[in-house]
Every structure is written in C-alpha cells, then in structure tokens.
Task: structure prediction
Amino acid sequence: MAIDLERSFKPINIAVLTVSDTRTAENDTSGDILAERIEASGHRLAARAIERDYAALLVNRLIGWIEDPEIDAIVSTGGTGLTGRDVTPEALDRVKAATGGREIPGFGELFRWLSFKSIGTSTIQSRACAIVAGGTYIFALPGSNGAVKDGWDGILAEQLDSRNRPCNFVELMPRLQEK
Result:
C-alpha cells in the first residue's frame, strides 16, 4: 500500500450484505471474514444482513442502506456467478437506475485480475462489480472466502483508507453527490 503516514486515518461506516439461499448467521464465513477485516482496518461495521438471491429483496435492502446516513459503503458477498440464481449484478443495475448512480468498472476488472493469481481462469465466472449510488459505495464480491479476501486485501483495504496515495475512495466521499 502507498500509505502516507503523515495523513490521518478517517474511519468510515461499512455494511456487509451476504447474498445466499443457504447461508445463515452460523455459517456465513465470508461475511465473518469481511466483518473482521473491516473492524481490524479501523472502520466501523455499521450493519450486517443476509438476503436470499432475489433481486427485489436486494434492491430494497441496498436502497434502505443508501438512505441511511450512518452507512458510507456496502460490501456484499455472493450472487455474482453465472447461474440463474446469481442476481447481485442485476440488483446493482436496478439500484443504479433508481438512484442515478454510476458504475465503477475498474473494480470488477481489478478484482478478476487479482483473482486470476489465486484461481486461474476460473475467475472468468465472476461478475464482481461496483457502483456508487446516492453517495454510497457498493462493492459486490463473490461468495467464497478466498474471493472476499482477494477483494478486501487486494483492493478495498487500500481504497477505503484515507491515507492511500495517490488517491482513494474516501477522499471523494464529500463530492459523490455533486451535480
């Protein structure tokens, strides 16, 4: 990381959403990994939930969290594959349309590049993606433990650290809703 130690760390409020038809609070290991890494990085875990793979449920949850002034960013895990039940990217598209949000295309590209180092060509099956909507960042990672580690450790830990140089997502937050 290109951390400038002369700058102060600004913790943000992050919600974790697990998207799964089978995970529960007892076996949500990818959500646990994210929650642990968020708090270990000095950020605040603002909310945590598990939703089934239904786009309407995801849209409602995400819009509710976007409207919550105590949530700055959302990291989801699961629902980014290729099967018919994997609807997280479609839910993000609906949120983006409903809020006038914007895609962050480089997130998915960088995630697959990092993931390639871990799982090779299997990364092509991931539809990891990100948007900014209503001033809130939303990052959608695959549901495996390895994927959330790759996404957090390889991208989000740095980009959600206000000291990261030459730039980071946190410093943009005050300007995300400019017109």
In short: The chain has six helices and six strands. The domain at 13-173 is CATH 3.40.980.10 (Molybdenum Cofactor Biosythetic Enzyme; Chain A). The radius of gyration is 15 Å. The longest helix spans residues 105-119.
